[in-house]
Amino acid sequence: MVHYANGRIGKGFSGDLFPNKPIFHLQEDDSDSPTEVGLEELKAVYYVKDFAGDSGYQPRHDVERPGLGRKIRVRFRDGETVVGYTNGYSADRLAFFLFPADGEENNQRILVVTKATEEVSLL
Question: What is the four-CA torsion angle of 40, 96, 6, 16, rounded to 10 degrees?
Answer without folding.
Answer: 60
